[in-house]
Design brief:
This protein is of the alpha+beta class. 36% of the residues lie in helices and 20% in strands. The protein is elongated, with a radius of gyration of 29 Å. Bound molecules: adenosine-5'-triphosphate and magnesium ion.
């Protein structure tokens, strides 16, 4: 007798459950998606014990009749897909017909559903995949699914569940994300007796951000919207060999991007505050993360990340969602096009907005490691009475921790150096503080400390005061731009290092070195494009000693250096003779610049022939030349030079920050000044 057997349904379902259900948040995700697919306008989620004990989701969607209610728990039973061709253009969040049977195989489930058209609704009870009862019930239109005792029959899996507070954090993050993608719908998340998320319908995403994260977060973000027609469809339909030549060509549709991005002065130490939605599905995608990082290249430091909420809309045929069981990853049919569209739209928005950084806001915006945007409503909660005295339970988790591996480090209890509840409620700075707490919850202690923002926060009252003031000011001056830089009146310098200038907006303080650095950086890149970086011949060649390993790196980047105005020849086995260099770069600065570029290039694994690496090398060289030839601090400038500097800065694409991401110009706004003098 053969050894191979077809697995019983219950076993197959549990295997599928292993892929899609690994914690309460993944159950919530599947049930929420079902409710959204059913056209619900109001969705209420109740959880107990972080969802370990109970998850109940009620919606007012289309509901199911009795036959469908039973069929829904069969494996591969779905109303969302009929033929294999449908797989090529999925417009619903679900399509695999696996979620309900998987969940029902590892929990006790009660389904109550009614279509509103049938005389009675249906109530189905299932435990561990076995149907226990099916009854008629008087119900109004919609569906309620209650999932209790998750993993009651799979103790090994139950062991991987984390503390209630951690599980609730994941559920909260998830509901928050879906609420962001659907501002027109009503979302409520209730944990035991308190409301964690309450988001009644609003007209715009901005209002939803306000509802969920508070006004200070909204003030830190700028809107972006872009659209581009697709030149061709990702999958031509019908395929060319079936095409009727007389049929008019199908419109391939367009790519649309809306969303919000952070001002350059707001920087995070990880990607956890970047949310990407494709056709309202929250996804993780390296390609789009890369596009976002590229948009911010040389605007924020390479080690920092922005806050971005990105909603991409495209014809369903353009994106393959059938690549990951939990449907959190997708594949784009025209991936380069989408990557470039996202990068260019964000970059253009940044260039156009040119947001001015407030003086106090910049003080409080040192790169922070907060893991995500934290719902304002939750940060004001005192925490669950029994399990979580610090109130950390309501901290949101990030998108990447959506489906965390069971190998996550155990939760580490954190004591905050201040009383979070007494801080400015719902403000951005509370949120960072809460975020830090959450970061510590999910990361080993060493890692959390390294992030360094704990130290910032621990500085205590002064910092908190500044932060609070900054949050307020920030909210007021969110629309101040750097467009008027050119018309500012320079008054003088502070310690020969910072230019003080006045304008209608208030008092500006401009860092002369980084301002000049930005001007030179953009000029070098422009000149480099037309191969005209201005060079100067040195009176005497400069001899530079290198180590053998540095000589190898030099050989790799020599050509690019030459295009940037250098003329360098080997002079002995470990010596270079620099005969010409870009204008403004001489002596020790020239030597330091060369050493810097060579050292920075030592991490590059490949020859810089790949387009990406070449771009990175090019901007690195330009940034280094700019930095070493820019006006130094402690240099006296006459009024003409100061004016020239401001005028030239005004012409740059990114007058907000130097190529290394440091702020260039800070504004003490007129309002801020008036407030400080108690005039308003
Ligand atoms: N809240 C709901 N309201 C109305 N119908 C629902 C609801 N939840 C599930 N259904 C029906 O039950 C079917 C099975 O749901 P299930 O989540 O198992 O599969 P799916 O959503 O089709 O695909 P996936 O496994 O990718 O989620 C759905 O196709 C849908 O017809
Ligand atoms: Mg589903």
């Amino acid at each position: 007798m053969g050894r191979i057997r077809v697995l019983p349904d219950q076993v197959a379902n549990q295997i599928a459950a292993g892929e899609v259900v690994d914690r309460p948040a993944s159950v919530v995700k599947e049930l929420l998606e079902n409710a959204l697919d059913a056209g619900a306008m109001r969705i209420r989620i109740e959880v107990e014990a972080g969802g370990r004990k109970l998850i109940r989701i009620s919606d007012d969607g289309c509901g199911m009749n009795r036959d469908d209610a039973l069929l829904a728990f069969e494996r591969h039973a779905t109303s969302k897909l009929h033929t294999a061709d449908d797989l090529l253009s999925i417009a619903t969040l679900g399509f695999r017909g696996e979620a309900l049977p998987s969940i029902a195989s590892v929990a006790r489930v009660t389904l109550e559903t009614a279509t509103g058209d049938d005389p009675a609704g249906t109530r189905v009870e299932i435990a561990g995949g076995k149907i226990l009862h099916v009854d008629d019930a008087a119900l109004s239109r919609g569906t309620t699914l209650a999932v209790s005792d998750l993993f009651f029959n799979t103790p090994a899996r139950r062991k991987f569940l984390r503390a209630e507070s951690t599980e609730l954090a994941h559920v909260t993050a998830l509901v928050t994300h879906y609420a962001l993608a659907h501002p027109e719908k009503h979302f409520e998340l209730i944990s035991a007796t308190h409301t964690v998320v309450s988001a009644p319908p609003v007209a715009r995403t901005a209002e939803r951000i306000y509802q969920i994260f508070g006004k200070d977060t909204l003030a830190q973000l700028l809107p972006v919207a872009a659209e581009t027609p697709l030149a061709r469809a990702g999958i031509p339909e019908p395929p060319p060999w079936k095409k009727d030549p007389d049929e008019p060509a199908r419109d391939p549709g367009s790519l649309r991007l809306t969303g919000f991005y952070s001002k350059p002065e707001l920087q995070k130490l990880n990607r956890n505050s970047i949310y990407i939605f494709v056709n309202k599905r929250l996804i993780r995608d390296r390609l789009l993360l890369h596009a976002i990082t590229e948009a911010y290249r040389n605007v924020i430091p390479p080690t920092s990340f922005p806050v971005v909420l990105l909603f991409l809309e495209m014809p369903p045929e353009e994106v393959d969602v059938n690549v990951h069981p939990a449907k959190t990853e997708v594949r784009f049919r025209q991936s380069t096009l989408i990557h470039d569209f996202v990068r260019d739209s964000l970059r253009t928005a940044l260039i156009q907005a040119r947001p001015a950084a407030g003086f106090l806001a910049a003080l409080g915006n040192a790169p922070a490691a907060s893991p995500s945007l934290i719902p304002a409503a939750t940060s004001a909660l005192p925490g669950s009475p029994d399990s979580d005295p610090e109130g950390l339970e309501s901290v949101g988790a990030d998108a990447e921790r959506f489906q965390p591996s069971p190998h996550l480090p155990p939760a580490i209890p954190v004591r905050l150096p201040f009383d979070p509840v007494s801080m400015n409620r719902g403000g951005w700075f509370d949120q960072q503080a809460w975020g830090d707490a959450a970061a510590a919850l999910f990361h080993p202690p060493g890692e959390a400390l390294q992030d360094g923002c704990g130290a910032n926060l621990a500085e205590g009252a002064v910092f908190q005061e500044a932060a609070r003031a900054a949050a307020q000011v920030e909210a007021e001056q969110s629309d101040t731009t750097l467009n008027h830089l050119g018309s500012l009146r320079p008054m003088g310098q502070l310690r020969d290092s910072f230019i003080l200038a006045t304008g209608d907006d208030g008092l500006w303080i401009i860092d002369q070195h980084v301002a000049h650095e930005r001007i030179l950086f953009e000029k070098i890149l422009r000149d480099r494009q037309v191969e005209q970086v201005q060079r100067q011949r040195l009176l005497m060649p400069l001899l530079v000693e290198l180590k053998a390993s540095q000589m190898v790196i030099f050989a790799r980047i020599a050509e690019e250096l030459e295009r940037n105005g250098f003329e360098v020849e080997p002079f002995g086995p470990q010596t270079l003779a620099v005969k010409a260099a870009p204008v403004g770069l001489e002596g020790a600065a020239l030597e330091r610049m060369l050493a810097e570029v060579i050292d920075q290039s030592s991490g590059d694994s490949q020859e810089p022939e790949h387009n990406e690496d070449l771009m990175a090398l090019r901007t690195r060289i330009a940034a280094s030349i700019a930095c070493h030839s820019a006006i130094k601090v402690n240099t006296a400038l006459d009024p003409v030079r100061m004016e020239w500097l401001l005028l030239e800065l005004a012409k740059t694409s990114h007058p907000t920050s130097c190529p290394h991401g440091r702020p260039i110009a800070l504004l003490y706004s007129w309002k801020e000044i008036q407030r400080a003098f108690h005039r308003i």
